[in-house]
């Protein structure tokens, strides 16, 4: 099943204000939803980074990921030669991941509710950092214990092209532009769909310079 139906939806500029669109079964884009909290989010990310710096993880196959990552919350997503998993401790420091900042928890809860998933309480937030050229190849997120809980993703800084496939790796992905302040909530069947990020284009964002930051909120444990 390929969901070509969704390929031709308009993707209005997020400067036009806040609104939502369905992009797949159970998946909703909330354009501009995080805009009013962007400064507070940047500051909170700085604080997480001070305790648990961004780093390039290695895949089980031995490849260094071009995305730099860190985590906050009671669990953090990690990858190494032994595989992918959630870990309560930062393997670089041996200490627990930093607590999830209140502004994160509240934003994730509100966004999930606005998309039709009330009661979402994330215990893990993976923070991805992209510079121009960075990409994230097509994958599924299935290390979380409860695959019924949605994932909430918040985009900050440079715009990106999100590749949104289907239940099978071979399903041709739709290309969806996500900009600063946009939130996507992935629930229902879309929760297990293949997805990725096309190589980031050059640019200079007024708040984040040459970076894109993405927060993904998960119920992992
Ligand atoms: C669709 N991150 O961290 S977020 C990831 O922009 C990840 O950094 C991308 O994919 C990023 O795993 C995309 C959007 C996202 C997250 C989880 C999903 C989309 C998803 C799970 C199922 C379907
Ligand atoms: Fe993912």
TrEMBL record:
<dbReference type="GO" id="GO:0035513">
    <property type="term" value="P:oxidative RNA demethylation"/>
</dbReference>
<feature type="binding site">
    <location>
        <position position="141"/>
    </location>
    <ligand>
        <name>Fe cation</name>
    </ligand>
</feature>
<keyword id="KW-0808">Transferase</keyword>
<keyword id="KW-0223">Dioxygenase</keyword>
<dbReference type="GO" id="GO:0006281">
    <property type="term" value="P:DNA repair"/>
</dbReference>
<dbReference type="Pfam" id="PF13532">
    <property type="entry name" value="2OG-FeII_Oxy_2"/>
</dbReference>
<keyword id="KW-0234">DNA repair</keyword>
<dbReference type="GO" id="GO:0008168">
    <property type="term" value="F:methyltransferase activity"/>
</dbReference>
<keyword id="KW-0479">Metal-binding</keyword>
<keyword id="KW-0408">Iron</keyword>
<dbReference type="GO" id="GO:0008198">
    <property type="term" value="F:ferrous iron binding"/>
</dbReference>
<dbReference type="InterPro" id="IPR037151">
    <property type="entry name" value="AlkB-like_sf"/>
</dbReference>
<dbReference type="GO" id="GO:0032259">
    <property type="term" value="P:methylation"/>
</dbReference>
<keyword id="KW-0227">DNA damage</keyword>
<dbReference type="GO" id="GO:0035516">
    <property type="term" value="F:broad specificity oxidative DNA demethylase activity"/>
</dbReference>
<feature type="binding site">
    <location>
        <position position="139"/>
    </location>
    <ligand>
        <name>Fe cation</name>
    </ligand>
</feature>
<dbReference type="InterPro" id="IPR005123">
    <property type="entry name" value="Oxoglu/Fe-dep_dioxygenase_dom"/>
</dbReference>
<feature type="region of interest" description="Disordered">
    <location>
        <begin position="1"/>
        <end position="21"/>
    </location>
</feature>
<feature type="compositionally biased region" description="Basic and acidic residues">
    <location>
        <begin position="12"/>
        <end position="21"/>
    </location>
</feature>
<protein>
    <recommendedName>
        <fullName>Alpha-ketoglutarate-dependent dioxygenase AlkB</fullName>
        <ecNumber>1.14.11.33</ecNumber>
    </recommendedName>
</protein>
<dbReference type="InterPro" id="IPR004574">
    <property type="entry name" value="Alkb"/>
</dbReference>
<keyword id="KW-0489">Methyltransferase</keyword>
<comment type="similarity">
    <text>Belongs to the alkB family.</text>
</comment>
<feature type="binding site">
    <location>
        <position position="195"/>
    </location>
    <ligand>
        <name>Fe cation</name>
    </ligand>
</feature>
<keyword id="KW-0560">Oxidoreductase</keyword>
<dbReference type="InterPro" id="IPR027450">
    <property type="entry name" value="AlkB-like"/>
</dbReference>
<feature type="domain" description="Fe2OG dioxygenase">
    <location>
        <begin position="121"/>
        <end position="221"/>
    </location>
</feature>
<dbReference type="GO" id="GO:0035515">
    <property type="term" value="F:oxidative RNA demethylase activity"/>
</dbReference>
<dbReference type="GO" id="GO:0005737">
    <property type="term" value="C:cytoplasm"/>
</dbReference>
<comment type="function">
    <text>Dioxygenase that repairs alkylated DNA and RNA containing 3-methylcytosine or 1-methyladenine by oxidative demethylation. Has highest activity towards 3-methylcytosine. Has lower activity towards alkylated DNA containing ethenoadenine, and no detectable activity towards 1-methylguanine or 3-methylthymine. Accepts double-stranded and single-stranded substrates. Requires molecular oxygen, alpha-ketoglutarate and iron. Provides extensive resistance to alkylating agents such as MMS and DMS (SN2 agents), but not to MMNG and MNU (SN1 agents).</text>
</comment>
